[in-house]
Amino acid sequence: MLSNKRIGILGGGQLGKMVCEAVSKWHQHIAVMDVSNDMPAANYCTQFIEGNFKSYDDVIQFGNTVDVISVEIEHVNIEALDHLKSRGVKVYPDPDILRKIIDKGLQKQLYISKGMPTAPFILVKNKEDILKKIASNEIQFPFVQKSRTEGYDGRGVAVIQHDGELDKIMDIPSVVEKKIDIKTELGVIVARNPQGQVEVFPPVEMKFNQEANLLDELVCPAQLAPENLEKAVNLSRELAEQTQIIGLLAVELFIDTDDQLFVNEIAPRPHNSGHHTIEACNVSQFEQFARAILGFPLIAPVSTKTSVMINLLGEPGYQGTPILTGIEDVMAMENVYIHWYGKKETKPARKMGHVTIIDENITDAHMKAMYIKEKLKVISV
Question: Which domain holds residue 126?
Answer without folding.
Answer: 120-178
